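Co-fold these.
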Amino acid sequence: MKRLFPYAVLAGEVGLEVLRARLDDVPIEFSMISAAQRTVALHEVERERWGTATLTVRVRLPKRELADGPWTNVACAAIVSERRTNVRAHVPLEQDEPGVWLGEVTLHRERHVNKAELIAQVSATVDEIDSRLIGRSEASWTIDLLATTPTKKDGIRTEWVDFGGEGAVHLDLFRSDPWFVEAVGEEPTLYLNKRFEGIEAILRSDRAVDRPAQNALASQIAQEVWTVLFTSVIRGLPKDDQGRPEWPGGWQESTLRKMLPDVLPDYSLTDALAEIVAREDGAGGDLHARVAHAAAVQARRTRHLGNFLRAFRRKAQEEEQ
Amino acid sequence: MTVDEGEPFGVWLGRQLRRRGVSQAELAKELDVTRAAVSAWITGRAEPRLEKIELIERFLGLSSGASVTRAELSDSADSLGWYHRPAHRDGGRELGNAAAYAFDSDLAVLAREATQNSLDERFDPERPVRVRYVLHELTGERLHRFLKALHWDDLRDHLHAAADPLRKTGRILRNGLQDLAEKDSLVLLRIDDYNASGLTGPEYGDGRFAAVVRRQLDSHKSTTAGGSFGLGKATLWASSRFGLVMMHSTLSETYEGQRERRLIGRLDLPWHELGDQQYAGPAWLGVPDRERDGTSRSWWADERTVEELYLSRGSDEPGTSFLVVGAYDAATEGGDLETMHENLVRGVADNFWASMIAGRDSAPMLEATVESLRNTTTVRPEERVDPHRHQPSRSRAVRAFLNGETVERITDAEAVLQKTVPLTVPPLKGRREAFEHEAVLLVTPMADGEEERPNRLVCMRGTRMIVMDRAVGEVVGTPPFQAVLLAGLAVGESEENAAAEAFLRTAEPPDHNDWKQTDDLTATYARGAATRLREFRQAMITMARAAARPSEGPPDEVPEALRGLLDLDPPQPNPAPKHPTVKSLTGEVRPDGAWQIRAVVRLPEGVDPWIMRPALRFGTLSGGGLPAGWAELEPESGCEVVEGRLRFTPGARTAAFRGVSDVASHPVAANLAIAEVDLVRGESAP
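Predicted complex below.
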């Protein structure tokens, strides 16, 4: 989607960095801050209980462009938000030197659950109107309160569980299944059944000879995960007052954005969303087949299954000789 | 003219006679005294009476009283000339300077070698040595005046004779002469250092002057830094298309009772033949030395000659100005001034950024500037080479070390971690005790947006010139970092550090770019030196990796094979989507409040006609936007407008249309919202 601003905005990049972080005034290792992944991991082992996290942030603005442009009263702010708790904090930054703004952003543990988003915004007076947004950081930072390493783990949670064992009553019904996908709530979860003989051995093996089977198995699991996720997302899509589907946000939206281009390749994302709902309602014939195809693309089925079959046949031939 | 107080009259008189080529016997005859009397004056056994002194002054053309102040006459520019060394009698021929072949003759290398020499020759250790590079292109009248001052007419035939197109040096020479003739332009590169020793010492005997001007491979190792003016000085001559370098030195200690404006030129040609004479190649510009068959020796120049030769110095601080005549950059095939300027800045910054760092209480060792001129016009103004601009992370690391601001745990994007790397320094041959030197390892997160390769370790010793740049390798789970190793005197002043410094210097090859087993090392140190070096090299990498690694977290639950298949990161945008997309959107709000918009559409390959509705929305930052309608919609190319929709021409790959929004349909005033245009299928315009 292309956008137009009715006033002058910055074309240059607005850079956002987290320089350091403290949990209750005690600094955390810098290795828990990753500029490449734009992620800060706030969970330190043995420091589970903390009240506030303070991040020192620095924003770099296109200095020359700002100086030559029509903007006055330039101000810069960091914004922390978490969709789940609907928290949004606006922290004004202070100019350190021309084009460089610094400030401290505080997160209160009890106001957040999981992951907060950090962005920077630049505002200025343009055409005699105050405080207009003239730029924002291109990519946001993720402040992950539960992670121990700053890797962008925007993925599907995976857990090894003994289905039917103690503390896994909700999986008792599926005790004979190798895995189970739970696509409800804030975070979809893939449960892998420890009780199912061989699955852990294959998936955790680091022997090269197991690699084809390992990948084929992973691919099959992934295909099922994506199918379940997609199906459950389109059932519960929010609609606007005219009955048109809206983007749901969260992992639900991520799932759609990843899969829709393969489900309906000749539709734009917006059109594809509407079309999916129309076909779902009218039970349009090939939709489920298309979803299966899109899930297989995510699971890289062609490559992994192909490699497995080649390896399997080669082994069979060797045994015959 | 500087007077060395307390210089005996006899020494002064002897020098005046030598410089004028007057023998003791001639003076004795002129003054009507015996030769023995003159000899006694010169050796200090006796002093002449006042009337004889006046006669001496008159005879030497000096003003009355000159002998009291020990005044000197500048050497007359008229007596200057080029002395070309005759060919060896045994018929031996040197067809190029062997030392020059040891280096790549590009300006970055020249900057490395020349700056290193200046650093090694630092005079007052409390203050930085200042190095100034000036590129100066001369054309027209200025060029001709310069060439005249250089006595070019005495050189031209030799240069042509040596320009043998079959040899590398000859070809460079020939191209240089051709360019000079055709373009009527010449590039001079002057390298000045201040607060350096200058070219001290006698004309022919041991000393800095002779090491640079008279000798090859003499590294004049008496200084503490050692190894200055060694092989590296050859890069000066190698950077001149004519092999021609002029020198102007202000000495840190007097020679012949003088300090200022000691000048000499040296030309390094290959063997050549001119007329029926054969020449060895080297030639010197100076005043003829009668005691040595007219060999040219350095002269004490007047200010005008210095100016004419573009050798003026900015102050009377000791140091040397080298003028590379016909400077060129082999790396860029000559290259323009701008490129040469850049290469010099890069050469200085890459190798000496650490030497240019100042601590809170300590001056930098080195300050360097680069400047470019064409005649009297500034091409690039004098630019101070700023280490923090070229090497932000590593400069930060060294500064933190100098300021004692290093930490034990990295908690900050700009924190600098300090560790110790042991180096066992073996004893010198015949001694017993080895000792452990503690080199300093600094590790710091790489600065955001820095263009250096990540995860490298650079090593340096006393002068903080970069000796090695080694890969540490990526450390999983760690942000990119930079590491610096300070060894020897770079750690601080102490006897042991100096001994470690000497050990590492011995382990450097002539290029000073490695620490490894050298012949010198084997000859100087006890057995096992090479092993100690290997251990040191390994330890520094291991330590750097360990320092960069974060503390361990719990293992991940996700099996490796599943990891890449289950991530929810947004997919890369498809560069060639299979549906029409708005490729570019431009527009403005008209005075009547309507958006006037032009959109370019990219269409996928295919023959079926696409029919899409251009949807205009007034966007909010987060939400989907509120729809607005069009007052006008006008096709521009590749499409037609049918009932508010665009029907794209079958087979077209791009299309364009214009539109004006319907003010009445705006949900808010146009200048208060972002406008978005999208192409949608489905229902017709609302």
